[in-house]
């Protein structure tokens, strides 16, 4: 084991202060939505995982409490409490200064998943209060903060000692600040998924989860000794596997690499990348390295075995990965990411390391496992055949004849050609579309009425999708094309509208229409969602006109309950059954006017979960969908934030 003396007060390096965090929290945690809220827990957990990677922590305990707070406790070494060169306890430095931590010189930590000294101090700055309890050197120490400001008085610069113990580790409790976050209730499903994921990536680690909030009481233990092999097995549990899970590993240039994959009898690709236990939702160099070498190897074998003739073109990368489920996990001593929240890895040496290890180990494996190789090549052949057929279908449907900017003649376009200023509203029905056309600002707002419910693309083949008049009109109106499993003709730079707003009735049918549109965008134009161009309009359900006072619009039943509870006197209540019941003035005031309207931006918090839920709820398999609806019937509150 590493020398404990390597990690002490002298290991803590200070780069700058905390001032900017509360002013621009999105720069540090991605957003102030539920995604950013959950990120606070992840940051503290990641620090505990770093202790595990360093060889000290074996157990992490995460607890959610009724008052909205959370705690993360580990049995690692404990944050150093000795006197730092700054004249205060090293713990105080870690939690009050950005970029203060033991992860800069690789002496205390060989690899790290936390934000290089940013994580814990950012959580402190964005919490109403934080309490720290450290067990170290046979003693228990405590510290406390309010919105990042210390409230515990130090003694000679050191933390007060509050007890004795033979245990060791750190417990951090915190309450997210409602002045910062839009919502302050943690989303438990996302946290559980993240913790389970972390357990798969660290087979010797146990993570205990306790939800003590009313209505959510739950106790879970995550321990996955099979590691990423178990991860792949879990992902494929409802699919027909074509071979046993393949696992390879190795180390190159101080970068350790683990890869597990398996092919299933299904047309999909699910390749997940992790660096130092952090999920890289946008991939990065480690994923690129794996995909490139894997495609090259399979094409080489396909020619050796005669599956590809001299005159045949190589399989594309998408062909080769058709049916693949894979997890690539690397440990890097000095990772670089695009973005503070680590969504994409940027190290070129990671690509080289993965390519070398995957190239060597896969060649060795396939030479000894011909049946698995043939299963992979067979999947690639099927995918290539389908791709060629669908490319012909695409050409025929989109080019012969060339269809117009608005093939059904109902798009009311805006005058401006400045995409940054323009908005397009997709409106349900001719009646609502007519009102919207009269209500809009013609300078920058376009209106596209659609006829009821569009095709469910999750169940349809590509030729049926592209033959649908409503879908063709949207593709053409947006101007940036579309993408699908075997090619990509999508170019976000050609998008004609900065905001694409789904404007459906505030009822079950409207929700279904919105869901169908979101499925289309997610499967065929995912960049629209990923780059924040898709919105859900929030038309009101009610208009109240009091006998005395100002009329108001109410957007849901809860708002109506609050109004009834607080309003004195009589009032007239009008319920809007649909957008078509509003006159143009009302529609402008409530739904179109940027100064008064309410809209929700559609976000993807977790690409894996989003893809699984889309397949579950919109796919052709009825039993899993029925089971999900039954299990979540009590949670049936419309929420389109993906």
Overview of the molecule:
The chain has 642 residues and is an alpha+beta fold. It folds into four domains: 4-222, Heat Shock Protein 90 (2-Layer Sandwich), CATH 3.30.565; 228-395, Ribosomal Protein S5, domain 2 (2-Layer Sandwich); 423-539 and 587-635, Rossmann fold (3-Layer(aba) Sandwich), CATH 3.40.50; 542-575, no CATH class. Helices cover 35% and strands 20% of the residues. It is built from 19 helices and 26 strands. Strands 1, 2, 3, 4, 5, 6, 7, 8 and 9 form a nine-stranded mixed β-sheet that branches. A five-stranded mixed β-sheet has the order 10-11-14-12-13, sandwiched between helices. A five-stranded mixed β-sheet has the order 18-17-21-22-26. A hairpin with a 2-residue loop joins strand 3 (127-136) and strand 4. The longest helix is centred in the middle third of the chain and has 30 residues, at 370-399. It is flat, with a radius of gyration of 27 Å. Residues 103-107, 400-408 and 628-642 have low confidence and may be disordered.
CATH architecture assignment name of the largest domain: 2-Layer Sandwich
CA radius of gyration is 27 Å
Query: Which superfamily, in CATH terms, is the homologous superfamily of the largest domain?
Result: Histidine kinase-like ATPase, C-terminal domain
Helical residues, percent: 25-40%
Compute the separation of the termini in Å: 44 Å
- Looking at the structure, what is the overall shape? flat
Q: What's the CATH first level of the largest domain?
A: Alpha Beta
Whole-number tally of structural domains: 4
So how many helices? 19
How many runs of DSSP E, i.e. beta strands?
Answer: 26
Largest sheet: 9 strands, mixed
């Amino acid at each position: 084991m590493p020398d404990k003396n390597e990690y002490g007060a002298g290991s803590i390096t200070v780069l700058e202060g905390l001032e900017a965090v509360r002013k621009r929290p999105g720069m540090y945690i991605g957003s102030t939505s539920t995604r950013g809220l959950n990120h606070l827990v992840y940051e503290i957990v990641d620090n505990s995982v770093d202790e595990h990677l360093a060889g000290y922590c074996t157990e992490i305990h995460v607890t959610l409490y009724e008052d909205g707070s959370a705690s993360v406790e580990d049995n690692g070494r404990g944050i150093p409490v000795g006197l730092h060169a700054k004249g205060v306890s090293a713990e105080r430095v870690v939690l009050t200064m950005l970029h203060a931590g033991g992860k800069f010189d690789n002496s205390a930590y060989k690899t790290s998943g936390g934000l290089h000294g940013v994580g814990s101090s950012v959580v402190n700055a964005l919490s109403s209060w934080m309490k720290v309890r450290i067990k170290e050197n046979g003693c228990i120490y405590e510290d406390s903060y309010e919105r990042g400001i210390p409230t515990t008085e130090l003694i000679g610069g050191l933390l007060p000692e509050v007890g004795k113990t033979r245990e060791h580790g750190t417990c951090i409790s915190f309450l997210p600040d409602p002045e910062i976050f839009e919502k302050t209730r943690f989303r438990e499903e996302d946290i559980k998924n993240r913790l389970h994921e972390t357990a798969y990536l660290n087979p010797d680690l146990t993570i205990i989860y306790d939800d003590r909030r009313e209505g959510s009481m739950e106790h879970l233990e995550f321990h996955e000794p099979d590691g990423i092999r178990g991860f792949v097995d879990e992902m494929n549990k409802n699919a027909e596997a074509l071979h046993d899970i393949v696992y390879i590993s190795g180390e190159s240039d101080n970068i350790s690499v683990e890869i597990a994959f398996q092919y299933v009898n299904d047309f999909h690709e699910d390749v997940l990348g992790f660096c130092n236990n952090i999920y890289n939702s946008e991939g990065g160099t480690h994923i690129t390295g794996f995909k490139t070498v894997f495609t090259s190897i399979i094409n080489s074998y396909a020619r050796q075995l005669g599956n590809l003739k001299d005159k045949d073109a190589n399989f594309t990368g998408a062909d080769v990965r058709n049916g693949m489920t894979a997890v690539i996990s690397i440990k890097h001593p000095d990772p670089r990411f695009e973005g503070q929240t680590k969504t994409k890895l940027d190290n070129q040496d990671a690509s080289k390391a993965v390519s070398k290890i995957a190239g060597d180990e896969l060649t060795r494996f396939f030479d000894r496992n011909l049946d698995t190789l043939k299963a992979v090549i067979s999947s690639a052949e099927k995918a290539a055949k389908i791709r060629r057929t669908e490319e012909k279908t695409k050409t025929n449907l989109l080019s012969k004849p060339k269809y117009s900017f608005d093939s059904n003649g109902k798009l009311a376009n805006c005058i401006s050609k400045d995409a940054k200023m323009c908005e397009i509203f997709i409106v349900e029905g001719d009646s609502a579309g007519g009102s919207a056309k009269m209500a809009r600002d013609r300078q920058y707002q376009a209106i596209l009425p659609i006829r009821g419910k569009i095709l469910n693309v999750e169940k349809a083949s590509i030729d049926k999708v592209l033959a649908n008049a409503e879908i063709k009109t949207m593709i053409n109106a947006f101007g940036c094309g579309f993408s699908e499993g075997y090619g990509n003709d999508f170019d976000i730079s050609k998008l004609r509208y900065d905001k694409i707003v789904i404007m459906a009735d505030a009822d079950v049918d409207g929700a279904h229409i919105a869901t169908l549109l979101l499925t289309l965008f997610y499967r065929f134009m995912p960049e629209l969602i990923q780059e924040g161009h898709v919105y859900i309009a929030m038309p009101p359900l009610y208009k109240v006109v009091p006998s005395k006072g100002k009329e108001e619009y109410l957007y849901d039943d809860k708002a109506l309950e609050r109004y009834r509870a607080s309003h004195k006197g009589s009032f007239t209540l009008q319920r809007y059954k649909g957008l078509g019941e509003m006159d143009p003035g009302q529609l402008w005031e409530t739904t179109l006017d940027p100064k008064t309207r309410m809209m929700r931006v559609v976000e993807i918090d977790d690409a894996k979960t989003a893809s699984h839920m889309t397949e579950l709820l919109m796919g052709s398999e009825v039993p899993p969908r029925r089971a999900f609806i039954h299990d979540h019937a009590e949670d049936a509150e419309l929420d389109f934030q993906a």
